[in-house]
Amino acid sequence: MSKKKHLEEKIVKAILFLFTLTIVIVLFSIIFGIFAKGIPALNWQMLTEVPKGGYYFGKEGGILNAIIGSLYLALGASLLALLISIPATLFIHTYLFSHPKWQKKIRLWLDVLLGVPAIVYGAFGFNLMLLFGWQSSLLAAIITVALLISPVMIRSMDESIQYVSKGLYESALSLGYFKGETGFRFLLKQSMPGVTTAFLLALGKGIGDTASVLFTAGYTDYIPESLNEPAATLPLAVFFQLSSPIPEVKARAYAAAAVLIMIILVISVASRMISNKLSKNRIR
């Protein structure tokens, strides 16, 4: 390699390292800033109790309603999105296997949906509520968030299935399996690490989204006992408490944000571990 090429290589390497370092610093600055303000306000009572009278004025209580509400919402929405995403992804890779133009068009539409702001999904969910005469509820929020995360899940699964050998699909068809059966018995099984990762990533996105549930979930100081009741979520708890002029309540908002970040970190680490474990049985 000439000296000029060697110098260019070093400059490009330095630029890439600088941008990577910037992203890492920004990420850790956000996490450190939230934890530095939130951890001092976090205590056992806050994690295990629902808000009591005067909680939003700095008195006793906790955010258990928001923690449970977030888990209900994210799990419900992720399961609903999974029911939508698996058939949609398999349809792209089985019945559209010989139609690459249609595959590209569908991927383009999904990418467009990925770029639609969450507040637009929230407005759509709100209109859906008005159309069916629903009140703000856990069910309305689950449907809205499921619509929000379905494109994420489908595209993640789509990318995963693209790594599955096409020869495996063609071999299965030659043995007499029909397309749908081949999709469920072979493609889905081989892409299970990607499906699991997609589910957990969508779960993380669902649990952390605020805009899409702002109009649909409502808010309550109680833990919902049915799908028709309103539900509190951690992002909404952060949103409402952070706008308070009372310092104690603001500190609790950062504590709720710290809890939210910890849940998302656990989900992210779990997705990586499960994906690595399932990848060991994959045919390459």
How would you portray this structure in words?
This protein has helices at residues 3-38, 44-48, 64-93, 100-115, 118-132, 138-161, 166-174, 179-190, 192-208, 234-242, 247-279. 73% of the residues lie in helices and 0% in strands. The chain is mostly helical and 284 residues long. It contains eleven helices and no strands. The protein folds into two domains: 3-41; 44-280, MetI-like fold, CATH 1.10.3720.10. α3 (64-93) packs across α6 (138-161). The longest helix is centred in the first third of the chain and has 36 residues, at 3-38.
Task: Assign the CATH topology of the largest domain.
Answer: MetI-like fold
Q: How many H/I helical runs?
A: 11
- Beta strands, count: 0
Indicate the radius of gyration in whole angstroms: 23 Å
The stretches of 5 or more residues where confidence is low (pLDDT under 50) are: none
Main location: membrane
Keywords: Membrane, Transmembrane, Transmembrane helix, Transport
Pfam families: BPD_transp_1
Subcellular location: Cell membrane
In short:
This protein has 284 residues and is mainly α.
